[in-house]
């Protein structure tokens, strides 16, 4: 009976689907275990073999936990809103919901592209997902709950006294009875104080404007990353080297009125929570750095009045080194700082404005990373030192960021490397004083930035003090004069929550007198409207500005035509949409109760599942998705919905499977219409000059040699009516000129066999290339190989579908786990697949021969039991420790041993099928059924390890004579030295070796050696 993976896998995948084998219960007597994979975005390109790595690992663990008696929730869904679908819609005119649906379910899009479909691809690999809980963030029945959470955030404020979010009504109550003087809230800066009587006298609009300064989601003018090429705002993690990750368009800094979320309110809790979760230290450190806690002081510097600045202004600075305040020689503001336009003198205005325009083209991330470039401009203004009252020049520089701290720094060049470099770069210019040294250390070569090992000098009342004492004293003195106080600051900034896109969650917001109003939750969802085009409007409004039905009728409580807006009962709706991270910031809770229409999840379901026990995904989401998810979870905990403070107990980041790219090397040979008599040497040929061209492939070694003489010779032999471009001046003949241009080019790996030989005919007909090609030497071509990221653009993508079709999903699953440790990057090498496939065929032969089942009821031997129990122990330990690659090695060892032992005993082979089931579930199910068992193997109890089968009772001793081993003898391990010696001396092989002699000495180490000497 032959092993037929395609037939077996189709059979069991159908069985699982029809019987809902992996459906989890929301109430069970079994202990719960929740395994989650990071939400995939369903692109049209589908899965390549790198994508399933984490899914296979989580599936192995899920199946193992079921064998261990757990009620396992292992769901899957799609993060289906996003920029790629929108960009595709702009290019092709197709509706994003249509292309997204095809990407998930498979089919043919309107462009005629055949799409495999994520769902079919995932099913083909045999994952134990509970598909009854599938969610898609772009479905209205999902995003109605995202809209609801947004409303909860809008209707909440953060009370520092209770250290949690509270309903906005409690804040209104405080305002109405005592004003805001004693309110300790996370809110906007520069809040104006008011009494209860003033609050009660405010108009409704005035009250709403004040509340916006306290709400956890709010409208405000914010510095954003604006991408003109995409027509939208981007998050920092969507920008790479100053351009958009999607499309590579330039990104500039721009002020816009945007929705934002006060994630900063949760900075300390986000920081402290990292100590309670089982995540890798590298991910925790990424989040700690992103949150960026700093302890220091707020210091106020009064701006000195000038001819154009009669109004008093104050520059607020946060510093972690208040002890260095007497070393301040200048101040630097971020170019975007609101005071820049107010304090800049007329003489400096043109230079300042030019610098601001130039800086706007650089992203914050680029400015933070660039520590080498020094640039800045003097504003012409001066501030007053709070103690010495000396004037301090105020500069602007792009190394200061508007969103970090206050957007201003007090520059102490003697104690900070960037300030030191800035001061030296502009040394001698108007507005840049000499560096002042306040440390008893030499700063002639570099700044002194240490916080210990020094005493302050030339620092007035701080002289002789160190960092700790100096900091404490200066804060006290600042508080006395009303120009500062101690403060804890965080780098973490509020998250911009608006996107100028179409394909995202609509805000449940309409505007009355320009102020946002929430639509009542009972009218959700507010469904994304139809639009004719997905670009911004002609007057620059977001794509929803193209919608003809996008206004809110406050009486009928429905969306109506935009032409009906009267700002009396019918009002404009929000035109921005939510960012991509909105739907993924709470999705794990929806899986707990995915069919609940009334609420995002019931209290019972939330209480039962609590949080994710194991989360597997990529490390690229460290400061994006993972941070926002923790923020939303903590907020929902504050509001009484989430049962736990943290959403994900254990996090594992799987490494990347890299592609093994293939390259061809060669030269473009171009023949010109020109002859030597009509062209001078060195003239660049343009397209119209080209008569003919082809690609001449050479070996990698020839390519690196650059032997143009050999190439010339080769061309002249085949094309005698030609001449090298290098020979123009020496030969004025009428021959065609040819030239070479070096080419190193990716080639589709599907054209390359396991011996790295290129299918040359396929290459020449390759639709992506479509050119003539010739081989320099030989009849075959060996490609070059390099390990790179697996990508469609590099033509090194291997699809799991191809592997499954040829070898079966079980082979793919085992091979991906066998490649190496889960958390490390590793290259894909298709050549190794056949070895794993061979292992599965060898496993099959333990159970079947050509005539059918050969399993018997024979008593297993000691060796059989030893092989099995070694494997039980190893596999259990490896899965618990997430060392999946070494489990696969152990399976191979076990099958080899059992084959050598000619073992066909049911007592061994039945538990072996269970052991391999998490890794290769299809073959395990088939073996289980063929052995006469009913039902799925997936919940059968995991085999129990028994130590006794690994305890050795006998030892094979090497018997040596004068140190040379002559034979071996197997003896019980419990024998004494005397008993061993007696048995060995009586052995006829010993007698033969001694030949009647008596040894001088018999050395015996029980359990190790026997040596007869002399």
Description:
With about 1000 residues, this protein is an alpha+beta fold. The protein is built from 32 helices and 40 strands. The strands form 11 sheets. Strands 13, 14, 15, 16, 17, 18 and 19 form a 7-stranded mixed β-sheet that branches. Strand 23 and strand 24 (about 560) form a beta hairpin. Helix 26 (about 835-845) packs across helix 28, helix 27 runs antiparallel to helix 28 (about 885-900) and helix 27 (about 860-880) packs parallel to helix 29. It is globular and about 115 Å long.
What are the main properties of this structure?
seven-stranded mixed sheet, alpha+beta, 1014 residues
Number of strands: 40
* Global morphology: globular
Rg of Cα set: 37 Å
Strand count, sense and barrel status of the largest sheet are: 7 strands, mixed
**Unreliable segments (pLDDT under 50, ≥5 consecutive)?**
684-688
Which structural class do you get from the secondary structure elements? alpha+beta
The helix count comes to 32
Whole-number mean pLDDT: 91
Head-to-tail CA distance between termini: 60 Å
Into which percent range does the helicity of residues fall? 25-40%
Note the beta-strand portion: 15-25%
């Amino acid at each position: 009976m032959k092993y037929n993976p395609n037939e077996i896998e189709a059979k069991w995948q159908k069985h699982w689907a029809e019987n809902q084998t992996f459906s989890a219960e929301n109430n069970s007597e079994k202990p719960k275990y929740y395994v989650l994979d990071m939400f995939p975005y369903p692109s049209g390109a589908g899965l390549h073999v790198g994508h399933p790595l984490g899914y296979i690992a989580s599936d192995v663990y899920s199946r193992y936990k079921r064998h261990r008696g757990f009620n396992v929730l292992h769901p899957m869904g799609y993060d289906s809103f996003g920029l790629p679908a929108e960009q595709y819609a702009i290019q092709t005119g197709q509706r994003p919901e249509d292309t997204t649906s095809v990407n998930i379910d498979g089919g043919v899009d309107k462009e005629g592209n055949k799409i495999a479909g994520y769902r079919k691809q995932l099913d083909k690999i045999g994952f134990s997902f509970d598909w009854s809980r599938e969610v898609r963030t772009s479905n209205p029945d999902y995003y109605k709950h995202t809209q609801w959470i947004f409303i909860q955030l809008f209707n909440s404020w953060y009370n520092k006294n209770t250290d949690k979010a509270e309903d906005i009504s409690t804040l209104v109550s405080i305002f109405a009875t005592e004003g805001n003087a004693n309110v300790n809230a996370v809110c906007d800066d520069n809040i104006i104080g008011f009494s209860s009587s003033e609050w009660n006298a405010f108009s409704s609009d005035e009250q709403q404007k004040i509340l916006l300064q306290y709400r956890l989601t709010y409208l405000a003018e914010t510095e954003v990353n604006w991408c003109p090429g995409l027509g939208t705002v981007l998050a920092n993690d969507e920008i790479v080297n100053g351009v958009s990750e999607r499309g590579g368009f330039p990104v500039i800094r721009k002020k816009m009125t945007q929705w934002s979320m006060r994630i900063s309110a949760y900075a300390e809790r986000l920081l402290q929570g990292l100590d309670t979760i089982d995540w890798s230290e590298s991910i925790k450190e990424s989040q700690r750095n992103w949150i960026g806690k700093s302890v220091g002081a707020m210091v106020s510097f009064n701006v000195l009045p000038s001819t154009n600045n009669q109004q008093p202004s104050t520059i607020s600075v946060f510093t972690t080194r208040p002890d260095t305040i007497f070393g301040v020689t200048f101040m630097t503001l971020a170019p975007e700082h609101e005071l820049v336009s107010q304090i800049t003198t007329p003489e400096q205005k043109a230079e300042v404005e030019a610098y601001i325009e130039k800086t706007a083209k650089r992203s914050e991330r680029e400015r933070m990373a660039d520590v080498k470039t020094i640039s800045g401009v003097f504003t012409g203004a001066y501030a007053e030192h709070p103690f010495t009252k000396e004037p301090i020049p105020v500069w602007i520089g792009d190394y200061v960021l508007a969103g970090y701290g206050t957007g201003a720094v007090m520059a102490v060049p003697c104690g900070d490397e960037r300030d030191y470099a800035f001061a030296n770069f502009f040394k001698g210019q108007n507005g840049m004083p000499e560096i002042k040294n306040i440390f008893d250390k030499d700063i002639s070569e570099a700044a002194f930035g240490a916080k210990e090992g020094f005493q302050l000098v030339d620092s007035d009342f701080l002289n002789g003090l160190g960092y700790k004492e100096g900091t404490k004293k200066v804060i006290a003195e600042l508080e006395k004069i009303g120009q500062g106080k101690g403060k804890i600051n965080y780098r973490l900034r509020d998250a911009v929550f608006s996107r100028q896109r179409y394909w995202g969650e609509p805000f449940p917001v309409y505007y009355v007198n320009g102020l946002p109003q929430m639509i009542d939750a009972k009218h959700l969802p507010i469904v994304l409207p139809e639009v004719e085009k997905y670009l911004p409007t002609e007057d620059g409004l977001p794509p929803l500005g193209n919608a003809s039905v996008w206004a809110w009728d406050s009486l009928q409580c429905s969306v109506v035509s935009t032409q009906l807006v009267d700002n009396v009962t019918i009002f404009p709706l929000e035109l921005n949409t939510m960012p991509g991270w909105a739907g993924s910031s709470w999705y794990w809770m929806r899986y707990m109760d995915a069919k609940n229409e009334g609420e995002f999840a019931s209290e019972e379901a939330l209480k039962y599942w609590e949080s994710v026990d194991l989360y597997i995904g990529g490390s690229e989401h460290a400061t994006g998705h993972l941070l926002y998810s923790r923020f939303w979870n903590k907020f929902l905990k504050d509001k009484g919905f989430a049962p736990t403070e943290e959403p994900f107990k254990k996090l594992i980041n799987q490494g990347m499977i890299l592609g093994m790219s293939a390259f061809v090397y060669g030269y473009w040979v171009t023949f010109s219409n020109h002859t030597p008599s009509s062209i001078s040497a060195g003239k660049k040929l343009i397209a119209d000059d080209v008569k003919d061209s082809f690609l001449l492939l050479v070996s990698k070694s020839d390519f690196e040699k650059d032997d143009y003489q050999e190439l010339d010779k080769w061309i002249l032999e085949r094309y005698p009516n030609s001449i090298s471009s290098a020979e123009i001046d020496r030969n004025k003949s009428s021959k065609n000129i040819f030239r070479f241009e070096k080419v190193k080019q990716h080639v589709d790996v599907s054209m390359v066999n396991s011996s790295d030989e290129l299918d040359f005919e396929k290459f020449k007909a390759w639709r992506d290339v479509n050119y003539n090609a010739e081989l320099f030497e030989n009849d075959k071509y060996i490609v070059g190989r390099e390990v790179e990221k697996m990508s469609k653009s590099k033509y090194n993508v291997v699809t799991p579908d191809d592997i499954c079709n040829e070898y079966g999903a079980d082979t793919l699953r085992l091979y991906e786990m066998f490649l190496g440790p889960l958390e490390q990057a590793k290259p894909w090498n298709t050549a190794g697949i056949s070895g794993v496939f061979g292992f599965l065929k060898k496993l099959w032969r333990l159970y079947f021969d050509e005539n059918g089942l050969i399993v018997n009821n024979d008593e297993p031997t000691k060796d059989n039991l030893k092989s099995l129990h070694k494997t039980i122990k190893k596999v259990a330990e490896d899965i618990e420790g997430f060392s999946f690659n070494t489990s696969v090695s152990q399976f191979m060892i076990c099958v080899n041993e059992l084959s050598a032992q000619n073992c066909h005993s049911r007592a061994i082979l039945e538990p072996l099928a269970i052991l391999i089931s998490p890794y290769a579930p299809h073959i395990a199910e088939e073996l289980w059924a063929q052995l006469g068992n009913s039902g799925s193997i997936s919940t059968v109890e995991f085999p129990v390890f028994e130590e006794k089968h690994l305890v050795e009772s006998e030892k094979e001793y090497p018997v040596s004579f004068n140190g040379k081993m002559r034979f071996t003898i197997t003896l019980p391990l419990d024998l004494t030295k005397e008993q061993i010696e007696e048995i060995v001396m009586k052995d006829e092989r010993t007698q033969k070796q001694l030949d009647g002699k008596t040894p001088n000495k018999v050395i015996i180490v029980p359990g190790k050696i026997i040596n007869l000497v002399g």
